[in-house]
TrEMBL record:
InterPro entries: Kinase-like_dom_sf (IPR011009), Prot_kinase_dom (IPR000719), Ser-Thr/Tyr_kinase_cat_dom (IPR001245), Ser/Thr_kinase_AS (IPR008271), Ser/Thr_Kinases-Pseudokinases (IPR051681)
Gene3D superfamilies in alphabetical order: Phosphorylase Kinase, domain 1, Transferase(Phosphotransferase) domain 1
Pfam families membership: PK_Tyr_Ser-Thr, Pkinase
Organism of provenance: Artemisia annua
Region Disordered: start-end pairs: 1-21
Sequence ranges assigned to domain Protein kinase in this UniProt record: 148-465
Protein name in UniProt: Protein kinase domain-containing protein
Keywords: Coiled coil
Coiled coil regions, renumbered to chain: 40-67
Keyword Coiled coil belongs to the record: yes
Stored PROSITE patterns: PROTEIN_KINASE_DOM, PROTEIN_KINASE_ST
Domain of life: Eukaryota
Gene Ontology MF, one: ATP binding
Length: 472
């Protein structure tokens, strides 16, 4: 082959190689194809998150549907009882015979009190607040808002923000109620006044101390207390959300037992107060600790007074209704035989309307973990609902685990099972020397409130257990 022919052949092959390489570039995938894969991963995560949200919504819907069905069934029963005993006709005929209401019988008084919605008038709210202002000034705990120097916000709830502040040179915590809470709630001033009044009556080592209050809602509805930076939840589990794995070492057993005893002593004081104070929202995040790691039972936003008369609360509304039977006899009756249960409570439970600052679903669901089954079922309840909450906390202190962390249940599903009496947190196993403590926990969270001990009994029992273990 001549030199010119070889040169021509080499030129063609080199062109073919270039074209082949260019073709490969056009047909083969390049590194730039990887971003769609990452995008797909993000989409999959978003889809999975949406699935979890949908699952929660379905569980919530099931829970509320079950509660609604129970309320409707009980309302039908109450109407039937009213009709069988002539109460229904009495209520319907009341308009035609107004003169009969001048001297009602005890039975009719009970029915009338429970069937007529009691909405506090604005004048009554102002009167109550005026009386509280006078009481605060007389006892030296009225605080002018100009005396408070707010610093950083340390927490926020459904109805208020909590700030670290300075008052007369002292570090304090200031709970600032949202102005809209007063504007959008007819009973907002009453609720605020009741929380302040509840705190103003407390004088106990293990109950949060009120320093004073700014009593000028809506813009200055402020509750001023001692400043405590740590909760029982933080002390036991460390900061952050619920986890199955511990992020901090578990405190020594004797220290956890002391915390339980201090909580019980604080709650005994509240329950033996005249009138009795029911906390209704006892949980580790509402129990604070001072610099010496002693507890303070706190957050009385849901607390209610319960007098020595025959009274009980309803789980849905928290309003008080009168029973004709004594508390002891009433508890022994089957639920369907409690004939004096008010019609109005069932109606309110069915038609209660949320407002802007009603507790959010996430906050409510976290509270459900510590809530007594009778409260979840919107049934009448008394101070023993706090004993149930304490039983859950006592077991949490003993095991060092969040309640129900051993399950994959959402808070709403936990509430369903607790309300049906099907579930309790896992107990500590293989501990022979604390069997009496396990028994105390089981009694405290018993399904029947009648079997739950009083806090006086719990305090005595914990002292005996502590002394026995320390002497061993």
């Amino acid at each position: 082959m001549s030199r010119e022919q070889r040169k021509s052949t080499n030129t063609k092959s080199s062109r073919k190689g270039l074209c082949g390489a260019f073709g490969d570039c056009m047909t083969k995938p390049t590194i730039a194809a990887s971003p769609p894969r990452q995008s797909n991963n993000r989409l999959e995560l978003q889809v999975e998150e949406l699935r979890r949200e949908v699952k929660k919504e379905i569980e919530l819907k099931s829970m509320y549907k079950l509660r609604l069905e129970r309320t409707q069934d009980y309302l039908k029963y109450c109407l039937q009882v009213a009709q069988d005993n002539g109460f229904l006709n009495l209520i319907l005929n009341k308009k035609d015979n107004p003169q009969d209401s001048s001297s009602p019988t005890p039975s009719s008084a009970i029915i009338q009190a429970s069937t007529i919605p009691q909405t506090p008038a604005t004048t009554q709210q102002n009167t109550d607040l005026s009386a509280l202002i006078e009481q605060a000034k007389l006892n030296g705990w009225y605080i002018d808002p100009h005396e408070i120097e707010l610093h950083k916000k340390v927490a926020q709830g459904s109805t208020a923000e909590i700030y670290k502040a300075t008052w007369r040179g002292l570090d304090v915590a200031v709970k600032c109620i949202f102005p809209d809470f007063f504007r959008l709630n007819d009973s907002g001033v009453n609720f605020f006044a009741q929380e302040v009044e509840t705190l103003s009556r407390q004088r106990h080592t293990y109950v949060l101390q009120l320093m004073g209050a700014c009593l000028d809602p809506p813009n200055h509805g402020w509750v001023v207390t001692e400043f405590l930076n740590m909760t029982l939840k933080d002390w036991l589990h460390g900061p952050g959300k619920r986890r199955k794995e511990r992020v901090t070492p578990l405190p020594p057993f004797e220290e956890r037992l002391v915390k339980a005893l201090e909580i019980a002593q604080g709650m005994q004081y509240l329950h033996e107060h005249k009138p009795m104070i029911i906390h209704r929202d006892l949980k580790p995040s509402n129990i604070f600790m001072d610099d010496a790691f002693h507890v303070r039972v706190a957050d009385f936003g849901h607390a209610r007074f319960l007098t020595d008369e025959e009274k009980a609360f309803t789980g849905e509304t928290g309003k008080i209704f009168i029973f004709s039977l004594t508390a002891k006899k009433r508890r022994k009756l089957p639920h369907e035989k409690q004939t004096e249960f008010t019609l109005h409570s069932a109606i309110l439970a069915t038609h209660k309307k949320p407002d802007k600052h009603t507790i959010s679903s996430s906050q409510t669901l976290s509270t459900y973990v510590y809530m007594a089954p009778e409260v979840i079922r919107s049934e009448p309840y008394d101070e023993k609902c706090d004993v149930y909450s304490f039983g859950i906390i006592l077991n949490e202190l003993l095991t060092g685990h969040y309640p129900y962390i051993e399950t994959d249940y959402s808070p709403s599903k936990i509430a369903l099972h607790v309300g049906e009496g099907k579930i309790r947190p896992a107990l500590l196993e293989h501990e022979d020397n604390i069997e009496d403590l396990i028994q105390l926990i089981q009694l405290s969270w018993h399904e029947d409130p009648e079997y739950r001990p009083s806090f006086a009994t719990i305090t005595r029992g914990l002292k005996l257990i502590y002394n026995r273990l320390m002497d061993a």
